[in-house]
Design a protein that fits this description.
The complex is a heterotrimer. Chain A is an all-alpha fold. Chain A has 22 helices and 2 strands. Helix content of chain A is 72%, strand content 3%. In chain A, β1 and β2 form a beta hairpin. The N and C termini of chain A lie far apart (61 Å). Chain B has 25 helices and 2 strands. Helices cover 71% and strands 3% of the residues of chain B. In chain B, α15 packs antiparallel against α18. By secondary structure, chain C is mainly α. Chain C is built from 3 helices and no strands. In chain C, α1 runs antiparallel to α2 and α2 packs antiparallel against α3. The longest helix of chain C is centred in the last third of the chain and has 31 residues. Chain C is elongated. Classes of the chains: A mainly alpha, B mainly alpha, C mainly alpha.
Chain lengths: 545, 649, 101
């Protein structure tokens, strides 16, 4: 439906940052200002396109909109297939919204190799947008990996003192997850031979009918996907790359890590794990809910003990991501809707917190909270902005954070048998959040004003330009979240009905499970001759008469 | 829903919280650039306008018959996801209008007082921005049409409480007290949130009107559902209203400016729990067990906090404990089902406790911020209007007729007695005696007793409050004297109770004959006599002990005094049982994170590296050795094929 | 007359063993290199023999592959040896252990 409206608009969305990166790459590196402006312009253009898509998106349908589908490697069932639906339209808008802000804030913070930074950041944006838009498993994987590489360089080249180790840890950790996911993608492909169009990587085609996986295999594939996404989010206990990466990356890059890249993990759970593996989602949901609750409380507790500002916020971010995971695996509409809107909220609020941490670092170069004190007296506007963002992170009603966490918790509370316990424990997480966030505010902004900080400069115009849009979103979503919620409702209920119907009709499973035998036959016929070479004794081939 | 005035009511009802909210936005954005006069005008103007709007709503409701005084307003669909729909809803009925009048009226007076009190403060605009935000939140809480909208106000007032307690944030004690208040009330808020979730599970909505109407049908009397819901919400109330065991934040909250203590920590926010229970009365009526818990917690808190106030040297902390104790009375009232009496005491307490705080603030203003009563004394002659105001408040608090406190407290005690809770009544009477004692002690130490040797010499001139501070005190004094008319208990039920009746008795199924009201006239007189006699005894005792002494020594130390001075060591128990363990737990988690979880990850890395270290020895760099290895490998493969017979065929 | 196949095979085995021994015992890179050529050609001889024996073209085909690979190997390998000799004044393989772990 959307195709006729605007052919190629999604490709445009990926192409603009790529073109921007290319344009910046050929510019003169000495003209830093021109380089920054060019990069900013392409990010703003991207946002305009994303905003146009968001506004023109028609809620009320679960179908893909603005869809684009072209053959890529038809022989292997790969396609260049892009589309937005309720799940992604707001995430795309969020991504495109945050990049101009981050590039704007970077002007003051990134002082070396400016051109390379802008190019890398724009490549990252293209990768992220592609990840959210791709409707083909291989295409998704390509973008998924493509966003990893720029991020590695952003940490490794522009980061803090321990950037090398942090970057290596980040990339090895996430690659380990990606490899598992790649294996699972191939397995899903091989499993899909029973479909009329033959084996395919195309997600909508894969979802058109049940894959007919036997439970153990489904669990295995679910696990492989889940580990990749859990590392990206991150989910306890796969989180230890996070504090290092968040603390060592330059502050604006941390914003991108926490606000957008973490969402790719959460998005993956809803996009792939739930619909592709509904049975496994239901049986392993409680496990992930449990991990989510642990993550909420554990992340909050560890955040409380951190002396480093960004490590504190990093663990706090992880704690908040726990709510999102909890909501996803409550598997009912309020909770999943809450998780989706919370992805946006977390992006805005945590992003704003890291922006603010960047502003502080930029002024003083101090990373530890106890090296500050009482600066609310010196920088009232910065303090007020921090307060608003903190309040949103605390999920106080009237701000965006409340909408998400409330829906997640109310949904979790009504989900399955043991989930009131999860909801009660997770609700306790709001006290923990108050403890560490107020400790942060208290140590940095309250108390006696340190003499050496008396001359601190309050917010500059450029910093207002970054913060004001974020604060507006915080209150807008807090009081009128319906535009976001209504865009995703149809998609969420479609996904959840997939998860639910399979459980409702266990009797139908033999019929659905019948295909496996022919599927295996097809599998060998379909594979290349390399298999034969590996399977047969090498010297026997060709010599015997 | 007929009648001409109704269409105005929604508009006015929206304006009531919206006006202070606008005030906040305007002051927050531009207040720093404006002069103090403009700031004061905007801040007081918006709150006064709210009060006027509330009065107009009252007038509109008065024009209706008592059954029709109930207007539910759904402004727009706020949150909708699947089966859950939450409108941004307001509810205007007799209860919410009464509360809104108290809040905006007392709020307006305290705003005016603040103009004088804060006149020299650097953060003038910030202060009034916070105060306006508080008014907006409190009025949202009051007029909310469902639990979730109420939660906006509920958390909003908590936030403002945090901000205003920590208003002088460069003082570490103030910053700490703010955080403590926020976190302790948040503990209660967990209960409130869970209560909302449970309400959605039970009713499918959190709308007050629907819940009130269907509670009797949906919740079996005394059933687990009603009891758990009522107790969860009550947990929220104990946090916000500083009841046992979550009271600990309120005494520390006195670090904030005194008008804040008067407005937030005496008159309005801390009574939100009582209001919420009155709002949810239909659910509480289905849960007798929860009601008993509410009443018992209220009574025990009343006497506990009154006892803690006995030896407190800090005048504001005395008033803080007094507030805790008086809110205990209110919970005692609503806990026995005397909704009207509880709300009456809420109202009268708002008058006289605000008055007491403002008078205390006036003393501090005159003394340059001192709060230690042992450094005061003899102020009667230097600050006569302040002393008079404090005296009116103190007599009202002590329950001396014909002041408002007498009527409201007496009505609660009488309702408690008549509904058969003799033990709770006895606790209440005992607490009344202690109340009379500590407030007269405070009055005597501050105003009457001769200054002691350790009192710093005061050279500065006589320093009575400026007019901006005097007028609100006068207004509150008047209300404290005349407010008794709202609940003239000998014409039981009083004006206020009758007004509230349609709101607080809707949805209650009367299975027992209505509690005997004025039927037992003789008993009533005896009850009144008892409580007045106990109060008088307490007052006389305190006067004899404290009025005539000079202030050279503190109260004699004894075991009892020691226990009282440490508030029964509850803070210490909190520290030992909750704060220290959670800190230790957090540190353990941190160590676990660093050493075990991250250790495992880096362990895998270093294990691989160590393996590489071993294997690198094989890379000797000697070409011929590699060749030999290759030969041996090839021979082994050949041998395997020969032995396994793989090569043939 | 035709020489029976086993003779060819025996010859190629001997050549292969000689080449192997050369690789293992000689230290001069050039001689090692020649020994490798010897081994490759021993294998070529085997291929041709079997191709003839089975009346199949596959073996002869593979010989061409081996010849091509050997030729490129000579080009690159000799270049490397010359380069090493220039920089280190030796072609003794035991003295060249830059890649020791």
């Amino acid at each position: 439906m959307g195709v006729s409206m605007a052919p190629g608009v999604l490709t445009l969305l990926i192409a603009i940052p790529l073109a921007g990166a290319a344009a910046v790459a050929v510019m003169d590196a000495r003209g830093e200002r021109a380089v920054r402006v060019a990069a900013l312009v392409s990010a703003v253009l991207t946002f305009c396109v994303a905003g146009w898509i968001w506004i023109r998106f028609s809620p009320g349908t679960a179908a893909l909109q603005f869809e684009e589908k072209r053959d890529w490697v038809p022989g292997l069932g790969m396609g260049y297939h892009l589309g937005v639906d309720g799940l992604t339209v707001s995430l795309v808008a969020l991504t495109a919204f945050l990049f101009p802000l981050a590039l704007g804030a970077a002007a003051a913070q990134i002082r070396g190799r400016v051109k390379a930074f802008q190019v890398t950041a724009l490549l990252l944006e293209a990768g992220l947008l592609g990840t959210f838009l791709a409707q083909d498993l291989v295409l998704f994987y390509v973008f998924w990996e493509a966003m990893l590489i720029p991020m590695y360089f952003l940490i490794a080249l522009w980061g803090g003192p321990a950037r090398g180790a942090a970057a290596i840890k980040f990339i090895l950790y996430t690659m380990a997850g990606s490899v598992l996911m790649l294996l699972a993608i191939v397995a899903v492909y091989l499993q899909s031979g029973g479909l009329p169009e033959g084996p395919t990587f195309d997600l909508p085609s894969l979802l058109a009918r049940p894959l007919g996986l036997e439970p153990p295999r489904e669990a295995l594939l679910f696990g492989a996907f889940a580990v990749a996404f859990a590392i990206k989010m991150p989910v306890w206990p796969l989180h230890t790359w996070l504090p290092d990466a968040y603390a060592e990356a330059p502050p604006v890059v941390t914003v991108l890590l926490a606000s957008v890249m973490a969402k790719a993990g959460a998005y993956g759970f809803v996009r792939f794990c739930l619909p592709l593996f509904p049975d496994a989602s239901r049986s392993f949901g409680p496990v992930l809910s449990g991990l989510a609750v642990i993550g909420i409380l554990y992340g909050g507790a560890v955040a409380w003990t951190q002396g480093d500002m960004r490590r504190l916020l990093a663990y706090g971010s992880m704690s908040h991501m726990g709510f999102i995971l909890l909501g996803i695996f409550a598997l009912n509409i309020p909770a999943v809707q809450g998780s989706l809107i919370q992805m946006i909220n977390h992006g805005v609020s945590t992003g704003a917190l890291f922006f603010l941490a960047g502003f502080l670092l930029d002024r003083t170069g101090r990373t530890r909270t106890d090296e500050y004190g009482g600066i609310a007296a010196a920088v009232p506007a910065l303090a007020a902005a921090t307060l608003i963002v903190t309040v949103s992170s605390l999920a106080l009603p009237g701000t965006n954070g409340f909408i998400g966490e409330f829906l997640i918790l109310v949904g979790t509370y009504q989900a399955d048998p043991a989930s009131p316990v999860a909801a009660v424990l997770a609700t306790g997480g709001i006290v923990v959040a108050a403890a560490y966030l107020l400790a942060f505010v208290g140590r940095v902004f309250h108390g006696p004003l340190r003499e050496d900080l008396r001359g601190m400069v309050d917010l500059r115009a450029a910093e207002y330009a970054v913060l004001v849009p974020l604060v507006l979103v915080i209150f807008w979503v807090g009081f009128a979240p319906q535009p976001l919620l209504s865009r995703s409702e149809a998609t969420v209920s479609a996904i959840l009905s997939r998860v639910a119907t399979r459980s409702a009709a266990p009797a139908a499973r033999p019929a659905a499970g019948a295909p496996p035998a022919p599927v295996h036959g097809l599998q060998y016929r379909g594979t290349s001759s390399a298999t034969h070479i590996l399977r047969d004794p090498p010297l026997g081939a060709g010599v015997s008469p | 829903m007929t009648g001409a005035p109704i269409p105005v009511v929604p508009l006015l009802a929206v304006l009531i919280p919206l006006l202070p909210l606008l005030g906040w936005a305007v002051l927050g954005l531009w207040g720093r650039r404006w002069g103090r006069r403009t700031v004061a005008l905007v801040a007081c103007g918006t709150v006064t306008a709210s009060f006027v709007a509330a009065c107009l709503v009252l007038r509109a409701l008065l024009a209706l018959s008592s059954g029709d005084r109930h207007v539910a307003i759904d402004l727009y669909r706020w949150i909708a996801a699947g089966p859950i729909t939450i409108p941004m809803g307001l509810l205007v009925d007799t209860l919410s209008v009464a509360m809104a009048l108290v809040v905006s009226g007392v709020g307006a007076l305290i705003h005016v007082y603040s103009v004088g009190y804060m006149a020299d403060d650097e953060g003038f605009a910030r202060y009034f921005a916070y105060m306006n935000l508080f008014m907006a939140a409190m009025l949202t809480l009051t007029l909310a049409g469902n639990l979730v909208v109420m939660f906006i106000g509920w958390e909003g007032v908590g936030l403002c409480s945090y901000l205003l307690i920590a208003f002088w944030f460069t003082r570490p004690a103030a910053a700490r007290a703010g955080v403590k208040a926020f976190i302790v009330t948040r503990l209660g808020d967990v209960g409130f949130l869970l209560g909302i979730f449970l309400a959605f599970a039970l009713f499918g909505t959190a709308d007050f009107t629907v819940m009130t109407r269907t509670a009797a049908a949906r919740l079996p009397e005394g059933g687990a559902a009603a009891t758990v819901l009522a107790l969860l919400l009550f947990l929220g109330a104990t946090g916000k209203s500083a009841q046992l065991p979550l009271y600990v934040w309120l005494p520390d909250a006195m670090e904030g400016p005194t008008p804040v203590s008067a407005l937030i920590h005496a008159a309005t926010m801390v009574t939100a729990g009582v209001y919420m229970i009155a709002r949810m009365h239909a659910v509480y009526a289905r849960a007798p067990l929860a009601m008993d818990v509410v009443a018992a917690v209220g009574a025990v808190t009343a006497i506990f906090a009154a006892a803690s106030a006995l030896v407190e040297p800090d005048i504001k902390r005395v008033l803080a404990y007094s507030t805790i104790s008086q809110i205990g009375y209110m919970f005692l009232g609503v806990g026995v089902g005397a909704w009207g009496a509880g709300m009456f005491h809420l109202t009268s307490h708002a008058f006289f406790k605000a008055l007491l705080f403002l008078a205390a603030g006036s003393v501090m203003h005159a003394l340059g911020g001192t709060t230690d009563m042992w450094q005061m004394g003899g102020l009667l002659r230097r600050l006569p209007p302040t002393a008079a105001a404090f005296a009116i408040g103190a007599l009202s608090l002590a329950g001396i007729p014909p002041l408002v406190g007498f009527f409201s407290k007496d009505q609660i005690l009488s309702d408690v007695f008549h509904r058969g809770h003799v033990w709770l009544w006895a606790l209440g009477i005992a607490a009344a005696g202690l109340t009379a004692f500590y407030i007269v002690r405070a009055f005597a130490l501050t105003f009457v007793a001769a200054p002691g040797a350790d009192t710093p010499p005061r050279d500065h001139h006589r320093h009575d409050p400026p007019r901006a501070m005097a007028w609100p005190m006068g207004g509150l004094a008047l209300l404290s004297i005349a407010g008794g008319a709202l609940g003239w208990s000998f014409t039981h039920p009083g004006v206020l109770e009758q007004w509230l009746r349609p709101a607080v008795e809707a949805g209650i199924v009367q299975n027992a004959p209505a509690a005997a009201g004025g039927a037992q006239g003789g008993g009533e007189a005896a009850l009144v006599a008892t409580s007045v006699a106990v109060a008088a005894a307490g007052m006389i005792l305190a006067w004899r002990v404290y009025a005539r002494r000079t202030l050279h020594g503190r109260s004699p130390s004894s075991v009892v005094g020691d226990i009282l001075a440490h508030q029964f060591y509850i803070e210490a128990m909190y520290d030992a049982a909750i704060v220290a363990p959670s800190r230790a737990l957090a540190r353990m988690a941190e160590a676990l994170d660093r050493d075990v979880i991250d250790g495992a990850v880096t362990g895998i890395g270093s294990a691989l590296a160590a393996g590489g270290q071993v294997l690198r020895k094989a890379q000797s760099g000697f070409l011929r050795r590699y060749a030999a290895f290759m030969l041996i490998g090839a021979l082994l493969i050949l041998a395997y094929w020969m032995l396994a017979g793989g090569i043939s065929r | 007359m035709t020489v029976p196949a086993p003779y060819y095979l025996a010859l190629s085995a001997v050549l292969f063993a000689l080449g192997t021994a050369g690789v293992l015992v000689r230290r001069s890179a050039l001689v090692v290199f020649m020994s490798i050529e010897l081994m490759l050609n021993a294998v070529n001889l085997t291929f041709v023999t079997f191709a003839r024996l089975h009346q199949s073209i596959d073996g002869q085909l593979l010989v061409f592959f081996v010849l091509v690979v050997a030729a490129t190997e000579v080009v690159i390998g000799l270049a490397i040896i010359v380069d090493i000799f220039r920089s280190r004044d030796t072609v003794d393989v035991d003295d060249v252990d830059l890649l020791r772990g």
